[in-house]
């Protein structure tokens, strides 16, 4: 299966692609054209054009979670494409925030979109086969959540509370050699996602998407990044489960990626990349 990287936070030199902090992937399966996340702005549309992908022909859009580095381009997509259904958890329609230093920043989906495009959204509660061989699935908690989640909040009944991450899902695509797992940010943890995928869908052939092992800068210092022990646990699981293909980039972190590259054969994703997985 070919996966087209419509957006990533870095690009290869001497290419015309645009890069931004966000993720958007495109693939085709059983005659269906699928968009996975829409990155932070409409820039993914430009990259799609360079890759020869007609967004008007997309049949399905899957939203991994509510944060705007994965949903910021949703308005542009809905304006361009008049037919595709958008699949997401119903909780993704909530009001989400991330604490940056001493300030709360809203990072959710514009609520006006749900009114304006009411008939386009398909809210799912449980694991759902949205097309033959393509699943949107909940993530089960097998172990602790990453450190960064302590900075994530949501508004519920005018009250600020910790984000329970119930708005996040992953995609699983069944291929002859095994399952391909697509992640958005892995806020519930890469290991929780992979363990859940293997339990629900069987042998994993590959994983592609954001791993979120890095933190954010506060006072010029990186905070809330995952420790080396966590990266080692991910590497151990990838190797023991014989996951052959690993592609990541979004929020993975430089040192963390170097470990994954060296010990788990991971490859970096760049905006505009086309990978076989």
Polypeptide structure, described:
This protein is globular. The chain has one domain (2-276): Ribonuclease Z/Hydroxyacylglutathione hydrolase-like (Metallo-beta-lactamase, Chain A, 4-Layer Sandwich), CATH 3.60.15. Mean pLDDT is 95; it is low at 218-222. 22% of the residues lie in helices and 32% in strands. The chain contains 7 helices and 20 strands. It has helices at residues 43-50, 68-71, 74-80, 112-116, 190-201, 228-240, 254-264, and strands at residues 2-7, 24-29, 32-36, 60-62, 85-89, 95-100, 103-106, 121-124, 128-131, 134-137, 152-156, 159-162, 170-175, 178-183, 204-209, 216-218, 221-223, 245-248, 267-268, 274-276. The termini are close together. A 7-stranded mixed beta sheet has the order 8-5-4-3-2-1-20. It has a 7-stranded mixed beta sheet with strand order 9-10-13-14-15-18-19, covered by helices on one side. It is an alpha/beta fold and 277 residues long. Helix 6 packs parallel to helix 7.
């Amino acid at each position: 299966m070919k996966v087209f990287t419509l957006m990533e936070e870095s690009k290869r030199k001497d290419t015309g692609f645009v890069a931004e902090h966000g993720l958007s992937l495109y693939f085709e399966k059983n005659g269906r054209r699928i968009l996975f996340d829409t990155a932070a702005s409409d820039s993914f549309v430009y990259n799609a054009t360079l890759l020869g992908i007609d967004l008007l022909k997309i049949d399905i859009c899957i939203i991994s979670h509510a944060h705007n580095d994965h949903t910021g381009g949703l308005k542009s997509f809905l304006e361009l494409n008049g037919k595709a259904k958008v699949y997401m958890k119903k909780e993704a329609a909530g009001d989400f925030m991330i604490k940056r230093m001493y300030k709360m920043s809203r990072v959710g989906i514009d609520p006006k979109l749900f009114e304006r495009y009411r008939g386009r959204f398909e809210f799912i509660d449980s694991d759902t086969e949205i097309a033959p061989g393509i699943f949107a699935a909940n993530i089960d908690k097998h172990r602790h959540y990453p450190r960064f989640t302590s900075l994530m909040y949501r508004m519920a009944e005018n009250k600020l509370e910790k984000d329970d991450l119930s708005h996040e899902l992953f995609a699983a695509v069944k291929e002859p050699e095994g399952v391909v797992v697509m992640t958005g940010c892995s806020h519930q943890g890469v290991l929780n996602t992979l363990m859940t995928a293997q339990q629900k869908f069987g042998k994993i052939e590959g994983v592609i998407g954001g791993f979120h092992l890095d933190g954010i800068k506060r006072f010029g210092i990186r905070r809330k990044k995952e420790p080396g022990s966590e990266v080692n646990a991910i590497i151990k699981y990838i190797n023991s489960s014989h996951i052959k293909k690993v592609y990541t980039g979004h929020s993975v972190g430089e040192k963390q990626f170097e470990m994954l590259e060296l010990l788990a054969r991971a490859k970096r994703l760049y905006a505009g990349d086309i990978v076989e997985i």
